[in-house]
Amino acid sequence: MTYETKYPFSNNVLKKYDNISDETIEQFLTTSHALYKKWRKQDALEDRKRQLHKIAEILRRDIDKYAEIMTKDMGKLFVEAKGEVELCADIADYYADKADEFLAPRPLETDTGDAYYLRQATGVILAIEPWNFPFYQIMRVFAPNFIVGNPMVLKHASICPGSAQAFEDLVDEAGAEKGSYTNLFVSYGQVANIIADPRITGVCLTGSERGGAAIAEEAGKNLKKSTLELGGNDAFIILDDANMNELKELLPGVRLYNAGQVCTSSKRFIVTKKNYDAFIEILVDSFKGAQWGDPMNPNTSLAPLSSAQAKEDVLAQIQLAIEHGAKVLYGNEPIDHPGNFVMQTILTDITKDNPIYNQEIFGPVAIVYIVANEEEAIELANDSSYGLGGTVFGTDVDRIHEVAAQIETGMTFINSGWASLPELPFGGIKNSGYGRELSELGFTAFVNEHLVYTPKK
């Protein structure tokens, strides 16, 4: 596996990184495991809280530096990368601030004696993370596990090694002990051996269904706890009473942010007949306004895709949809540029027998469906093997929440696009994976809930 930063705007290779040997992996795991043992004996929670706050401080101080690293790695807009850095700082502060509350013993109600449980570290955690949010994906695993006392080792995506290394340098600069976070430039073959290592106690992955199945198999085979986030085909339901003027404010960001390379972005727009024509007009106008270009330029609003392969994959999916009857309402024109650009595209008339019906298109492509009523909208939204997120948009608050409760998904956003905040749990159901990250739920993903019980005499 080649780890290299290839700028998606130009496809020029900016830097290559060497893979590490099995002997180096052994050294890293030895260091991380020793640190886990040390923390179990000496706690050092106050030190970790200070260091996590320091990480947040450095991120905000050097926001432009870290944002540019991400942009050069995977091509996202510089302004979006800056927002990602700020979110990472917020996550770090959140877990440092909540550490005492989340680690406090939890009393249990019983008539037979006194009982409580402790939240304790379990050991070294392996994170396998994707390229679309090169810092955020790391931080939402690192921050809670660092606070609880679980060192983390990371296998990042091969196209964003600069971000992986920069995060390790950041943790070191903040004064964290060696082994708190270790970046591993390893092959997938080496990953299986790392999971099998007894010093690894948990594995988390954000990625594809195929990758998730492979990692879950390795983790299960070795009796390791795992959490998976495997993408989504999120529905955006527009109810009969939707305020179309308010909807204009959301588009096109709910689909084109990060060039559409967001697991929770709205990919299937489900509109009742009453609003269909008005919605199409709004969506087309909003897509027309997106301007592709250099992601470092503040005037650019549509970034290139992360790699030449990503571009090829998205274009192939659009073509597959068309070959099976889909209509192109807007877009799907070539962009003459060496970068990995895909023109923002709107597809309609995708039937259930179209192969794209149950696929996630990870790029700037919106699919629009028309339904007769809200009941059909709910049925269509749930007719997917995915269940990560989604939106319900309308004005009758009670009805919106009634509809939201019927959607088979891990997250529903009301009158808004997707959102990510430190205090909100993130995760899905069905083929979108299992487990949660962020919030208190994410904090407990890899802790030992240790019962302490004293029976009555």
Explain the overall architecture.
The chain has 457 residues and is an alpha/beta fold. Helix content is 41%, strand content 20%. It contains 15 helices and 20 strands. It has helices at residues 22-42, 45-61, 63-74, 78-103, 136-148, 161-173, 188-196, 209-221, 244-250, 253-256, 276-288, 308-323, 374-382, 397-405, 439-443; strands at residues 3-7, 12-17, 106-108, 113-120, 124-128, 152-155, 181-183, 200-206, 225-229, 235-238, 268-272, 327-330, 345-348, 365-371, 386-387, 390-393, 413-414, 429-430, 433-434, 448-455. Strands 12-13-14-11-10-16-17 form a seven-stranded mixed beta sheet, sandwiched between helices. Strands 7-6-5-8-9-19 form a six-stranded mixed beta sheet, sandwiched between helices. The radius of gyration is 23 Å and the shape is globular. The model has no long low-confidence stretch (mean pLDDT 97).
